[in-house]
Amino acid sequence: MVIIVDASAVIAAVDRKEPKHDVAAAALRSATLPLIIPSPVTAEIDYLLGVRLGRAARLAFLNDIAVGNFRVECLEPGDYATVLELEQRYAALNPGLADLSIVVLAARFNTRTILTFDERHFRVCEPLQGGRFTILPTDADSSV
After folding, report:
1. pLDDT per residue as tens digits for the range 74-97
2. 3-class SS at 108?
3. Distance between CA atoms of 100 and 127, rounded to whole angstroms?
4. Global pTM value
5. What average pLDDT is seen over the chain?
6. Which residues contact 130 (CB under 8 A, 6 or more apart)?
7. Which of 20, 26, 46, 52 would give a disulfide with 12, using CB separation of 3.0 to 4.6 Å?
8. CB-based contacts of 68-73 (< 8 A; 24+ apart in sequence)
9. Mean pLDDT across the stretch 38-43?
10. CB under 8 Å to 62, separation ≥6 — which residues?
């Protein structure tokens, strides 16, 4: 099992001014399963850290990847077709590539567990393998 990680969780964990900083940092520290970040999400995190916190925060995030704190997974060509289908299915949400890459990788790794504060999208989007996502840290009591 793995946990798929969204940008919102990483940003909150790094940015001490974020209201959910403490809970996000604790969730990342206490994770016992591998933390997977889709490659489109890494670009989003890099950009947002740079804009909000500057170069040092971006470099610290890249170092976290380099030392293995996060595992980055790329989308395969066929995954983009799935993203297109999901864009149509959830058009009213306008979820975008980063969020939908989380849905795709959750299916690849056969997990429903994601670390995010983006409940607006992930309470509506369904895992490709059926069921509902377990959204950490909110659903921590019912997680793996």
Report:
1. 999 999 999 999 999 999 999 999
2. helix
3. 10
4. 0.94
5. 96
6. none
7. 20
8. 69/35, 70/5, 70/35, 70/36, 70/37, 71/2, 71/34, 71/35, 71/36, 71/37, 72/36, 72/37, 72/38, 72/39, 72/42, 73/36, 73/37, 73/38, 73/39, 73/105, 73/108
9. 98
10. 46
pLDDT confidence band for 141 (50 / 70 / 90): low
Give the phi and the psi of residue 121 in degrees, each rounded to 5: -85, -45
pLDDT tens for each residue of 16-40: 999 999 999 999 999 999 999 999 9
Q: Which residue has the tokens 């590539």?
A: 97
The residue ranges of DSSP E strands in 49-101, in sequence order, are 71-73
Q: One-letter amino acid identity for 124? A: V
